[in-house]
Amino acid sequence: xxxxxxxxxxxxxxxxxxxxxxxxxxxxxxxxxxxxxxxxxxxxxxxxxxxxxxxxxxxxxxxxxxxxxxxxxxxxxxxxxxxxxxxxxxxxxxxxxxxxxxxxxxxxxxxxxxxxxxxxxxxxxxxxxxxxxxxxxxxxxxxxxxxxxxxxxxxxxxxxxxxxxxxxxxxxxxxxxxxxxxxxxxxxxxxxxxxxxxxxxxxxxxxxxxxxxxxxxxxxxxxxxxxxxxxxxxxxxxxxxxxxxxxxxxxxxxxxxxxxxxxxxxxxxxxxxxxxxxxxxxxxxxxxxxxxxxxxxxxxxxxxxxxxxxxxxxxxxxxxxxxxxxxxxxxxxxxxxxxxxxxxxxxxxxxxxxxxxxxxxxxxxxxxxxxxxxxxxxxxxxxxxxxxxxxxxxxxxxxxxxxxxxxxxxxxxxxxxxxxxxxxxxxxxxxxxxxxxxxxxxxxxxxxxxxxxxxxxxxxxxxxxxxxxxxxxxxxxxxxxxxxxxxx
Length: 488
Ligand SMILES: NC(=O)C1=CN([C@@H]2O[C@H](COP(=O)(O)OP(=O)(O)OC[C@H]3O[C@@H](n4cnc5c(N)ncnc54)[C@H](OP(=O)(O)O)[C@@H]3O)[C@@H](O)[C@H]2O)[C@@H](O)CC1
Ligand SMILES: Nc1ncnc2c1ncn2[C@@H]1O[C@H](COP(=O)(O)OP(=O)(O)O)[C@@H](O)[C@H]1O
Ligand SMILES: [K+]
Fold this sequence. Notes:
By secondary structure, the chain is an alpha/beta fold. The protein has 2 domains: about 5-215, YjeF N-terminal domain (Rossmann fold), CATH 3.40.50; about 225-485, Ribokinase (UDP-N-acetylmuramoyl-L-alanine:D-glutamate ligase, 3-Layer(aba) Sandwich), CATH 3.40.1190.20. The protein contains 19 helices and 18 strands. The protein has helices at about 10-15, 20-25, 25-45, 60-75, 95-100, 130-140, 185-190, 190-195, 225-230, 255-270, 280-285, 315-325, 335-345, 360-370, 375-390, 425-435, 440-460, 465-470, 475-485, and strands at about 5, 55-60, 80-85, 105, 115-120, 150-155, 175-180, 195-200, 220, 245-250, 275, 290-295, 305-310, 330-335, 355-360, 390-395, 400, 405-410. The strands form 2 sheets. It has an 11-stranded mixed β-sheet with strand order 1-9-18-17-16-15-14-13-10-11-12, sandwiched between helices. Strand 11, helix 11 (about 280-285) and strand 12 (about 290-295) form a beta-alpha-beta unit. The two termini are about 15 Å apart. The relative contact order is 0.10. The protein binds ligand NPW, adenosine-5'-diphosphate (ADP) and potassium ion. Its cofactor is Mg(2+); K(+). In the N-terminal section; belongs to the NnrE/AIBP family. Belongs to the NnrD/CARKD family. GO terms for molecular function: ADP-dependent NAD(P)H-hydrate dehydratase activity; ATP binding; metal ion binding; NAD(P)HX epimerase activity.
């Protein structure tokens, strides 16, 4: 099953479904025990618990309650805890009593020389940026990467919106985020602000969320094993045709780069056959002799899916080609220049019944949707996909792939070295090959994004890369993912 993410409303529904566990305080006891366990593990890993110094920043609600209860556990283990109460009169009473009983200190400011700071300012009840008091406390801390304390956020980094993942300014930037039961949208949408996310089991389940009352987009992500399992593997009876032939229309004789990258990615991503159609045929074949190339659509053999657009121009000829391809019942991925044409002629794709995958970056998305992506990327991509009844893959560090029902699969690249010219051409080649193999467009897009991100990571290992390096690492990335199956 894909990993499911919930918005704040759905989390509250899942908590309420536990009945007595919520009202009797069991959920909070489990949550705070989970936070304490993660912190104790971290302290032990870095030299032990006794005498270590931990600061706790406590807000006005239950998030602060979690932090205080966790502080009580730490104080009983000999950790020197100092809490700052941002709103003393509203601080969680039970948490405060437990913390005081365990010998925890309360002060007006955090002391110097802390090993770790617990961010218990706000969780799913938070709205907008950190308020001034909390902002001042965090502004005084040296960042963890410069030798300052590790920041462990309870549930969410405060100042990050649980539903949209908007990272307000200011917001806490966590090294570790400990959340409860089911991850929240923000743990994927704002992954870089969350650091490592630990999900503690407290006995709540996403299954208890029955209705999507606020009609908010549903967000999930594939596991590595799911990506590996969907990757096409030739069977004993397969031949080069039976696995799905992908056709690529990209680049030009003058600008062959996009053609080479997109076609090369298609060749690399799956077995079987790749066709190329366009004026860069000679350049493509000189790079990839296995590609069957033609100059025009009239000369091309059968394909099972098309990739059209990268570097393919936006003139009348491009429109004619798009009209011809989108008029078939074959799966079509439209990228780059193709999207510019589609933005002018939405009738080419709106409501198209054959699988249709549009892969815009933010600028192309704005042209298609007629408005900027805005801060709420999840809602924006789901809206366009449902409005046009096609699958839309919005590129970026967090790639979001929305299907026509508004369900979204997200992928955190885990790093940003892929933000390099031509990387998008590689993504379209991979996703197109998966479409030709018969994967539905949302799965094709999300699986391609995972492999693309892993390839960037493998190619880079901390140094800059170009799209050709990324392309060269696609095969090892697929192998790595498939290895997780035998390892599991
Ligand atoms: N229910 C349960 O059993 C369980 C709950 N759990 C935990 O409870 C958390 C949710 O607790 P919650 O509902 O009390 O809200 P929470 O996030 O603490 O915010 C509280 C108040 O903060 C304020 N505030 C708002 N924005 C702000 C800002 N930007 N900057 C500063 N302050 C701001 C605002 O109050 P105001 O000051 O406006 O009166 C708001 O009402 C959840 O994330 C999880 O950690 C777990 O233990 C599992 C079991
Ligand atoms: N900040 C980032 N972190 C990780 N991946 C990114 C980032 N920005 C872009 N990417 C990925 O790199 C690729 C860039 O695609 P695109 O913008 O179309 O570039 P191009 O048109 O030059 O090929 C996409 O796969 C996108 O998801
Ligand atoms: K928090």
